[in-house]
Amino acid sequence: MTLTNRDLVELTAWRRQLHQHPEISNEEERTAKEVVDFLADTGPDEVLTGLGGHGVAAVYESGKAGPTVLFRSELDALPIHELSDAPHSSLVPGKSHMCGHDGHTAILAALGRQLGRERPARGRVVLMFQPAEETGNGAAGVVADPRFGAIAPDFAFSLHNLPGVPLGEVRLKPGVVNCASRGMRIVLEGKTAHSSMPETGVSPMMAISQLMPALPALGRGTFADDEFSMVTVTHVEMGEAVFGIAPGHAEIWATLRTRRDDRMANLCAAAEALVTRIAAEHRLSPRYDYHEVFVASVNAPEAVEHLRRALDEEGVSHGEENLPMRASEDFGVFGHKAASAMFFLGAGERHPALHNPDYDFPDDLIPIGSKVFMRTVRNLLG
């Protein structure tokens, strides 16, 4: 079962429509409705909405015993103003699909069209359109939803487009493919004072000046090492934007990154101890909290072999170059529930990078991604 030329025209038009109407993490209500409406003609046996927020799961049953195979895409866009002259560029100021989730969604919709014409021979397929990937709470919210238990997969697969890799080529390997990461927000409280009498206050200035180099210095190892860890300071704010007040409040934000989940706990403990020590030296009250928590994405060898077989049978070139990546991806959460694997589909060696304001998903990837997924369905559930 392959996509027709008409299918590709309609899927491309729909992808571009999604591109024009981006919704950022946890706001994907319209996008979710678009998915439900688009899949209606494919006749899914069950459609779950509102999963973990605005998630949509479309279930295609065979009526016979067999594994449950889940394929996942993302619904959310980014808070980035698009800089493009494409006729389908974002109509929403300050928001855009600069990561290609509109294209990933179109690939899953293409799979839905094929399943509507030819159900799996056994088991069932779940198309999971997940919200809030960019903030790291989407997959966790879906898995925590009580209704997820009814569609719990045996296998879970996903893809992500990857600029810098030749168009249509795939990168795939077992083991870690994306790092664990989390944002750490550190707040330091002292005492404000008039700027003519700073000695009467407690300023966080010296503590901030120490933490800015000390936090990155917590990083260990090289990226090729499983013990790798990295800290990147991303934001600093101190006091008010005035000349008459010596500051008594400051914030410093940092992203903590490791290849392994167990290493993350050690890195958090080291960062917290550092903050506590430096704050005490300067008579400051510290507190910290964590945001955008991503677990490591780890490809199960068994799931990787299913994808490799599908790639070979469909004649799609693949290798292990460029992996693993420092960037994070919340698909790793599904790996705690099923044998899972993600592959990376080349968007072109000179294609604008992900999250760049001039990025746009290459529509030529829609038939490539969907045929690899469909071949995986046939091999697992044929």
From TrEMBL:
Residues 182-281 form the Peptidase M20 dimerisation domain. Gene3D superfamilies: 3.30.70.360, Zn peptidases (3.40.630.10). Mn(2+) binds at C99, H101, E134, H160, H355. One of its GO terms (molecular function) is hydrolase activity. Keywords: Hydrolase, Manganese, Metal-binding. The keyword Metal-binding applies. Pfam families: M20_dimer, Peptidase_M20. Signal peptide: none annotated. The Mn(2+) ion enhances activity. The keyword ATP-binding does not apply. Its cofactor is Mn(2+). This is Peptidase M20. It comes from Mesorhizobium kowhaii.
